[in-house]
Amino acid sequence: LYTGLRDRDGERPFAAEIVAMGLPLSAARARWGGWFGFVEGEGDLSAEEQAAWAAHRGWFGELERTHLTKCFKLILLESMLGVCGTAEAWAAGAEIGALAAHSHGLLQGRPELWAEVKEDVRFPALSAAGDRRRWTQYWQENPVNAWCNSQFFQKVEGRLKPLKSIAVDAGQWEAFRLMTAELLDARRLQYRRRLQSGKDAFTCGVIHNSGHPILKLPDQRPPALGTERTDLAVRLPSGEVWVFRFVKIACNIAGPPGSGENRMTELLRGWFGAEAGQPGTAFTVRFARKLDGWCVEPEQGG
Questions:
Q1: Left if phi > 0, otherwise alpha if psi is -120 to 50, otherwise beta: which for 301?
Q2: For residue 163, pLDDT beyond 90
Q3: Considering only Cβ atoms within 10 Å of each terminal Cβ, which end of the chain, N or C, has fewer?
């Protein structure tokens, strides 16, 4: 798919283009360490991009797999890139009030994401000082504090400041900025697709059982699965159709129809690597019903 798009357009495709065609970023992470590891393997990273990838693999990996309860973590980073236009500005960090105001504008321009904001702080504008304070406090609670609980940011005297783990050399800044923006675009698209899936969709966690990764159903069993054991024909991202067997709280059997094979371990480790289901990971798999039937794809997480 990648090389076909590259040949057609005369340039490499961006991550969001691949996601839009139904392939998850985790497919690249499992084999190449991440999207940019795959692109590097195709010979499509510039010297500056190769340097940025080598220096900040942990950062790009976090962008690919960070868990999203809402879209706010992505919006905050988009604002951070918008407010900090140089390597020096990035190193100095951004005033949290300015980031909150910038994020407010981004959210208002995206109705499906704006709807995730609590109603009592859904201010049409931030012209009043009280409204600005309440919005900034709300934005600090999530996502500022969420990113400050990571190894990448800290709050210093009212500013959100990158830690040394994402200190960027001036010569790598433009590549770092564009690569970060590329992954943010892809993750926002994934998130929007999740929102659009609606009630005919559900997410399973990847857990471990007797040495093998399996899928755990949500606490509230999806209505589409009924109340008893259900065998569901599901299309994989590759286009193959497999049958997944859902029992009371889990799914531990999946394979091609009529084969009698259980290839669940092969599938999950192919998507997420050997750590699939291990303690301390948070991989998830999403099932969704579309016009042509059920499909499944790995989500980000880890």
A1: left
A2: yes
A3: N
Q: Return contacts of 218-222, CB within 8 angstroms, 24+ apart.
A: 221/249
Q: How far apart are CA 176 and CA 44, in angstroms?
A: 15
How many angstroms separate the CA atoms of 277 and 302, rounded? 9
Please give the Cα distance from 270 to 266 (Å, whole number).
6
pLDDT digits (tens, 9 = 90+) for 257-281: 878 899 999 999 999 999 999 998 9
SS (H, E, C) 144-157: HHHHHCCCCEEEEC
User: Token pair of 67, please?
Assistant: 């868990």
pLDDT band with cut points at 50, 70 and 90 for residue 4:
confident
State pLDDT tens for residues 116-154: 999 999 999 999 999 999 999 999 999 999 999 999 999
Phi–psi pair at 128, nearest 5 degrees? -85, 140
